[in-house]
Amino acid sequence: MPRALAERLIHEAADMGIFSTVGFTGGEPLMFANEILALADILKTKSIPFTIATAAHWASTESATNNLVHELHARGLTRVGISSDPSHQAFVPKVNVIRAARAFAAHGVETHVVGAFFDDSTTTESMFPELAEVEGVSFKTHRVCRVGGATKKRLNVSSKATESHIQGLRCYRSIYHDIVVFHDGKTYPCCSVFNRAARDICLGDANVDSLRRLYQRAEGSLLMRALKRQGFGAAYQVAVSHDPTLASALPKLVDAKDACSLCRDIFGNRDLARRVHSAFAEEEVDRIVALVRNIESTLGPSVRDTIIDEVIG
Ligand code: SF4
Fold it and tell me: Under CATH, what is the fold of the domain 3-157?
């Protein structure tokens, strides 16, 4: 990402005053450590804390590690995710991860060591017995998802959800958004490995639109609210009520591995995505008409007109 775009986004986020944290992720953001420190300086002046996802390639000596951790912490780093698993360890030795995790934890930074595995049996914790007793360090274990280079790999993970999982088929955050801006400006309403594959959930391009506008697109979307607060089951009902042919066209909920995989299957398919969006556009019109009628019958036509003038005008 060009530094000017990152700086602009930070200033806009500060002006909006609604973001709790800025996160730097990648790729590997600390390939550009000096630029991250410069951006963190701006964040500090705005009193916005930040987080980082890193694989800790930079933690090759004690002094290099402590210096960088100290500089990051001094500027407001509150949480770090250190990615380490066989895929990352082909490039970054475990010893770097252990060194970095200890240094972050010693500075009081919430530290997560995060791994993604090709099978169901390995856990991140089991790979790092050296960190088991370190206060402030915790572990997260993920399974590799069928996306990007992993579409060509053999994944030995369970792929079928049971009926009881259907209720859980919803976005990982029910209220707030993780607004994610990629290096090229493409912006998404969540942090999912499937963002780029689910291109029809893209909110727009930060090179063109303001952060406020992009945020409003996420917050103002009835479809997004349904996916976040009620889940795909409820969203399917709305979509099918406006377009019954979607009942057979949408992927089966019982076959869904997880919400984001399902999201990719729907919103990575242009035709299906268009039909779902159009069903929700009709639903939105129906709800607005019902609301306006309700206001009219409760408060009268004159108050209705005043409210509509204020909202629209
Ligand atoms: S279900 Fe879709 S919109 Fe929700 S978090 Fe996953 S990828 Fe994002």
Answer: TIM Barrel (3.20.20)
Q: Please give the model's pTM, rounded to 2 decimal places.
A: 0.90
Q: Tell me the average pLDDT of the chain.
A: 94
How much is the average pLDDT of 221-234? 95
CA 299 – CA 200 distance, rounded (Å): 39
**Which residues neighbour 74 within 8 Å (Cβ) at sequence distance 6 or greater?**
none
In angstroms, what is the span from residue 191 Cα to ligand 1's centroid?
8
Distance, in Å, from the CA atom of 35 to the CA atom of 52, rounded to the nearest integer, reads 13
- 132-186: pLDDT as tens digits: 999 999 999 998 887 888 878 777 666 555 556 777 899 999 989 999 999 999 9
In whole angstroms, what separates CA 155 from the centre of its chain? Answer: 23
Closest residue to atom 5 of ligand 1, CA basis: 171
State how far the Cα of 5 lies from the Cα of 92, in Å rounded to an integer: 29
**How many alpha carbons lie under 13 Å from residue 133 in its C-beta half-sphere?**
1
Distance between CA 203 and CA 218 in Å, rounded?
7
**If you measure from the C-alpha of residue 198 to the centroid of ligand 1, how many angstroms do you get, rounded to a whole number?**
9
300 C-alpha vs ligand 1 centroid, how far in Å? 40
- Higher model confidence: residue 151 or residue 14? 14
Break the chain into its structural domains and give their ranges: 3-157, 162-284
Atom of ligand 1 nearest to the CA of 267: 2
